[in-house]
Every structure is written in structure tokens, then in C-alpha cells.
Design brief:
505 residues; alpha+beta; BirA Bifunctional Protein, domain 2; Rossmann fold; Translation Initiation Factor IF3; eleven-stranded mixed sheet; 25% strand; globular
């Protein structure tokens, strides 16, 4: 009977994650994938509302930390991209050569976004003198303007952010929210007087990421990316990864420390209190709709979505029972809804003329945290029945319902945090051997769908050997070090550095 119910829903079992995920994002009415451009989905109201609430979490953190919201143009002229690519190429070549970028005296193959951007070559029927492209990210247009705004040390720090669409010609297999060509993108860019200011900003970024992930009930692995996986224009990159139920990691946030490497190319300088010209230091911080993808993937089940209360478009849905036989039911439902709404709870009344079971079915798929039934018997008793999306039913007093509902929402959030932490603990495991030999065969030891914890303090060639032998990707050095030294998996040298290797999206 249970299998029949699942089949009727059209939702594959979650254990078949690669089928379950693309099905659920459409069945739950988050997006429509039928738009005739690969990787560009249509956001539907329910999905857009959830994403907007995630954006609000980011805006709250930005406001708390003194960032201001801007909106920069979508189009960028080609000569600015060339300027960025020359810089990025030089920085990448310098890093690979182990020298300061100022010491580099040779040209390298261009790096950057040129192969990934969408080009605009005409305005109407007129060919543009300088081709333009749709922003893949906004360093170039932002820093062009920053150089006009910053003159003195009194203009610093400059802390900006924007939430916009960016465009990248993604050639890999697209997947809603996870790998797309039109990206719902949050990006913060800051400018500081010195490296110390930029260092503090990176710490602040890390704290903001964890605050947002806490609200989304998502644990994460935070690591400093290895050199080869660092944005070529960055001094270093740190990232937060969420472990999905299939054991793959999903990078949901990155923050880059640029030091003063971009300042000269974009004329980002200022006059210090002594009248001397100094170069600025910069950071960037990025997130996207991958956060919503992580919420869907981690919290959902065979019945549909489970929305964390912080981003549920409707935290409570009230369903009238037997309203046709008692004229008091609908006014009572509306009064309860207004009471909840006035107490800051996102509330919806489902008064559709359909069976109660259909209503439960629909809102269960959408992952609404609490569903409330209210009928004549409930009115007589002064109570109502609340069904929790995490499981179980609770009888609550109508008098004081907002307080009861808020408590239940808090309990739901904590339950989701506990569940997701338990999933991660099962998917993150210690590597099966202590020291890797070049002769070791790992075919029978490496399990699909597992993130492996390792001690690693090796060289680039050690990392190359590790990735080749395991078929996994090194995430980098974790912020969470071992309490006692362990032998590096490749070199055997003792280290406190904890790393993870995994398959990544």
C-alpha cells in the first residue's frame, strides 16, 4: 500500500537520489524545467519565495556587518574582461612559478571567464564597436567603479553586496539549483586599507556563512581550498561544502582573499593619513541558489520537501474541517490565521473545495512545517490538531496558539539539524588505510557515496597521487584540526591538518 502511495505521488524513493532530486524540484512546484534553453529554469512562485527568504537571511547578515546593497549593470564591455583575464593569467602563472606577481616577466595563456560567458554583439541591427558579455561575476564592473569612489583612507572599508542573476555557459550536465547557466547569485565585495582588515573580513564572512547555514539546518565542511582549486585571481580561497545524501559534496559558499593583487590593475589606491599612496586589499564572498538545492536534497524525503521554518514560504497551513455544516468554522479559521500572521508567522488558509486528504497530500509534498485542522469539534474543545512535517501530531490550545506554534517551529528546526548531522556522520568516514603506497590498489576499499576524512600535509604531487589513486577530489585543509598528530596519508609525516576527499558536484 505504501509503495502504491509513493507511485501515485510520482516521487522516486530518495535512496535513488539521482532520480529523486530532479523529480522533486518540479513535483514540489519550485521550478519548471521546460524552458527551451538548457540550464535556465523558470522559477515558480513557491520556489522564488523560498529563495527570497534565503536572500533575506543574507541581507540580515549584510546589514548587521555594515555592508550596503548595490546593483551593478548586467552588461560588461569586452575590454574590461580582457583586463581581468590578463591579471588573472599573471597571478596564476606567478603562483605556479612560486614568485611574486611583480617579478613575472612573461605572458601566459589567458585564464578567466572568456570561454564561459554569453556574448552580446549587436544593439538592434547595429554591430557593437566593443562586444559585451553578460556578467559571470562582478569583479570587473565593480572594481572599475570602486576606483572612482575610493580616494582617501576615510573611504575605507568599502563593504558592498548585490543579489543578481549571473550567466555562465556551463557545458557539464545541468541540474536545477546545483549546476545551471543562469545563476541566482549573491556576491559581497569589500575593500580595505591593509591585509589585516581583509583578514578580519574573511573571518566575518565565515561567521556569516555558518549563521545562514544554521538557519537552513545544514551542517557543513569548511576548508581552505588547495592551490589548484583556488580562484586564479585569489591569494587563497575558503569554502563551505554540504554533504548531500548520495555522498557528494556541494559547494554552497566561497570567500576569497585577494590581498592587494587586484589593486594595481584596477587603480585601487588611497591616500593614508600621512599623505602616502597605498594599495587597497580586497575580499569577495559568494553564494547562490545552491543553498536551496542543499535544503531540498538534505531535508526532503520520499513524501516530498521538508522546509526549514526559516525559509518555508508558509510556516503554517490551516485547513477548515466540515465548514459546510458549521458556519462558525470559517470565521474561526480566519481569526486563527490573523492571530498567527500578526505574530509574525507566515500563514495560509486552504479553503479549497477538495477532500481534506488532498490538502494534506499537497502541503506535505511542499514541505510546510505545520498543518492545522480546525473544525466544529475543535472549536467546542478550544483546541486544534497540528501535524508536523517532521512527523507526529500535536493537540494545541487555540488560546495562545502563536506561542505554541513558534515553539513547535523551533523544535522542527532542531530536529532537522539533528537529522542532517546524523546523516553527515554516517557519510563521513575515516579513510580505510593510514598511509597510502604507490603500489596500493584501492578498488575494493573505496566505497561510492562516502566522504573520507584524512590526515594530509603533502605536496601538489602527493595530492595528484591521492586523487589519481582514489578517484576523489581533495577539498582542502579543514578549519577543524585533529587534536593529536597523525601520519599524512601520502607522505607519512605527522600533522594536525584534517582534510576530506570526496566526489563533488
Amino acid at each position: 500500500m505504501e509503495n502504491h502511495s509513493k507511485a501515485k505521488r510520482g516521487i522516486p524513493p530518495k535512496e535513488d537520489f539521482n532520480s529523486w532530486y530532479p523529480a522533486i524540484v518540479e513535483i514540489a512546484d519550485l521550478i519548471d524545467k521546460r524552458y527551451p534553453i538548457k540550464g535556465m529554469d523558470v522559477w515558480k512562485p513557491y520556489g522564488l519565495s523560498a529563495m527570497g527568504l534565503i536572500d533575506n537571511l543574507a541581507r540580515t547578515e549584510m546589514s548587521r556587518t555594515g555592508h550596503q546593497e548595490f546593483r551593478f549593470p548586467l552588461l560588461v564591455p569586452e575590454d574590461l574582461l580582457d583586463k581581468e583575464n590578463r591579471l588573472v593569467s599573471r597571478l596564476k602563472a606567478a603562483r605556479e612559478a612560486g614568485v611574486n606577481p611583480s617579478e613575472l616577466r612573461f605572458d601566459e595563456e589567458e585564464s578567466g571567464f572568456k570561454k564561459e560567458v554569453y556574448w552580446v554583439t549587436h544593439g538592434g541591427e547595429n554591430k557593437l564597436e566593443i562586444p559585451m558579455f553578460l556578467r559571470p561575476t562582478s569583479e570587473t564592473p565593480m572594481y572599475t567603479m570602486f576606483s572612482l569612489w575610493i580616494r582617501s583612507h576615510t573611504d575605507l572599508p568599502l563593504k558592498t553586496f548585490q543579489i543578481v542573476n549571473t550567466f555562465r555557459y556551463e557545458t557539464k550536465q545541468t541540474r536545477s539549483f546545483i549546476r545551471v547557466r543562469e545563476i541566482h547569485f549573491f556576491e559581497a565585495h569589500t575593500v580595505h586599507a591593509d591585509q589585516e582588515g581583509a583578514d578580519l573580513q574573511i573571518q566575518e564572512d565565515a561567521e556569516m556563512v555558518q549563521t545562514i547555514l544554521h538557519e537552513l539546518c545544514l551542517p557543513s565542511l569548511v576548508s581552505k581550498r588547495p592551490v589548484w582549486d583556488t580562484f586564479p585571481g585569489a591569494w587563497y580561497t575558503k569554502a563551505a561544502d554540504v554533504v548531500m545524501p548520495n555522498g557528494r559534496t556541494l559547494q554552497v559558499a566561497t570567500y576569497h582573499h585577494y590581498r592587494d593583487q587586484w589593486a594595481d590593475a584596477f587603480d585601487l589606491s588611497y591616500e593614508d593619513p600621512m599623505g602616502e599612496t597605498k594599495m587597497c586589499h580586497q575580499t569577495t564572498f559568494g553564494m547562490s541558489e545552491r543553498l536551496l538545492g542543499a535544503v531540498v536534497g538534505v531535508h526532503g524525503d520520499d513524501k516530498g520537501l521538508i522546509m526549514p521554518p526559516s525559509i518555508a514560504p508558509f510556516q503554517v497551513v490551516i485547513m477548515p474541517v466540515a465548514a459546510h455544516s458549521d458556519v462558525n468554522v470559517l470565521p474561526a479559521v480566519e481569526a486563527l490565521a490573523q492571530d498567527l500572521f500578526s505574530n509574525g508567522l507566515r500563514t495560509k488558509v486552504d479553503s479549497r473545495d477538495v477532500r481534506l486528504g488532498v490538502k494534506h497530500y499537497d502541503w506535505e509534498i511542499k514541505g510546510v512545517p505545520i498543518r492545522i485542522e480546525l473544525g466544529p469539534r475543535d472549536l467546542s474543545a478550544g483546541k486544534c490538531v497540528a501535524t508536523l512535517r517532521t512527523g507526529g501530531k500535536v493537540e494545541i490550545d487555540l488560546d495562545g496558539a502563536p506561542t505554541n506554534v513558534k515553539e513547535m517551529l523551533s523544535e522542527i528546526s532542531e530536529e532537522l539539524r539533528n537529522r542532517s548531522a546524523l546523516v553527515v556522520s554516517g557519510l563521513v568516514q575515516k579513510f580505510p588505510i593510514e598511509i597510502l603506497s604507490a603500489d596500493d590498489s584501492l578498488d575494493s576499499l573505496i566505497e561510492d557515496g562516502i566522504v573520507y576524512e584524512i590526515a594530509f600535509d603533502g605536496t601538489d604531487s602527493d595530492a595528484e597521487l591521492l586523487e589519481k589513486k582514489t578517484g576523489l577530489i581533495l577539498l582542502g585543509v579543514s578549519d577543524d584540526k585533529f587534536s593529536e598528530e597523525r601520519p599524512c596519508l601520502v607522505s607519512g609525516n605527522l600533522t594536525l591538518k584534517r582534510s576530506y576527499i570526496a566526489r563533488m558536484y
